[in-house]
Amino acid sequence: MYKTPKLKLWLIVVLFSSATQLLSQDIHFSQFANSPLNLNPALTGAFDGEYRFNSSFRRQWNPTVNYRTFTISGEKNFCTVKCDSSNCWRPEGFALGAVFNYDVAGDSRLSLTQLELTGSYNTYLGSGFSLAGALMLGGAQRAFTREELSLENNSDPANSKSVGREARSLFDISLGANLHYQGCARRNSLDFGIGVYHLNQPNTNFFDVADINLPIRYSLYGLGAFQLFNRLDLLVNGLVQFQGPYQEIVLMGGVRLLPFDTDLGSFMLDLNLGARFDDSIIAMIQLHYDMWNFGISYDITSSDARDLLGIDGGLELSVGYIVNRPNPARVCKVQF
């Protein structure tokens, strides 16, 4: 049956209006703690150092569609130094950060290109607790190409013509809050927080047929590390995210072995196992060396998700680095 160009365009509109609704979820990582600004803007500056850089890459396999996600972020701490009653160093003040995200999937190369700027303020509450609040502002572009889409018989040369690229730009506003606890005599730390992304719910529809707004994403998490023995820590991380009709629940647990010495220097090793509910089992290893950390994880897709979605699994890589320049004002004597 012959389809006119007008009908062909209308079918593309309908298909991608539906796809926009189905794919209007944010990017996500199994190593969510290694992508802090995508977890909560208030984690900007939540580290002991002057600068922090993080990057993650994820590839999710499907028999017909490859999903690839990349992120890189950088932060600058302007926190002043103060000592509490137990003579432990505590940060207080401002921090700034930026995060760049890129996500692409499918023959149509349906993509998200995003740049966000964030600022946070951290205040010390006492007894090891501090509270941070943050604002994130930025822009993004969603796009797809129609060259590889086929709605008719591919043997017709007219069907293989390039029909261009569609793109949609949007402005984004997000907020976050984080409560942090840092022990003094022992290696105990806790973070609880909530990030609220896309407060303005920007319109993501490509064709202006109808408004399709990006739903608000709520990110609630807990990140914990607890000293068990002199060279062994317990690691417990959890994440719950809601965005429109979608939800994600991830629980991770493991141990940190520290330190162990080699000819190359002193290392710490994290061994983690977790699960994304109704989706996959996650195995993760992370190596810490000096101010570097390197992580690798793999999602072993559950049978139900594999049968329903055809997804075989996902590989994820991460790398982070902290610049910790000597600070003459840092005079507290932290005891471990």
Layout of SSEs?
Blueprint: H1 5-22, H2 36-39, E1 51-61, E2 67-77, E3 80-83, E4 89-105, E5 110-126, E6 129-145, E7 165-182, E8 189-197, E9 217-229, E10 232-243, E11 246-262, E12 265-276, E13 280-289, E14 292-301, H3 303-309, E15 313-323
Antiparallel strand pairs: 1-2, 1-15, 2-4, 3-4, 4-5, 5-6, 6-7, 7-8, 8-9, 9-10, 10-11, 11-12, 12-13, 13-14, 14-15
Describe the structure.
The chain has about 325 residues and is mainly beta. It has one domain (about 5-325): Porin, CATH 2.40.160.40. The chain is built from 3 helices and 15 strands. The protein has helices at about 5-20, 35-40, 305-310; strands at about 50-60, 65-75, 80-85, 90-105, 110-125, 130-145, 165-180, 190-195, 215-230, 230-245, 245-260, 265-275, 280-290, 290-300, 315-325. It has a 14-stranded antiparallel beta barrel with strand order 1-2-4-5-6-7-8-9-10-11-12-13-14-15. A hairpin with a 2-residue loop joins strand 5 and strand 6. The longest helix is centred in the first third of the chain and has 18 residues, at about 5-20. It is globular and about 60 Å long. It starts with a helix and ends in a 13-residue tail after the last strand. Residues about 1-25 and about 155-160 have low confidence and may be disordered.
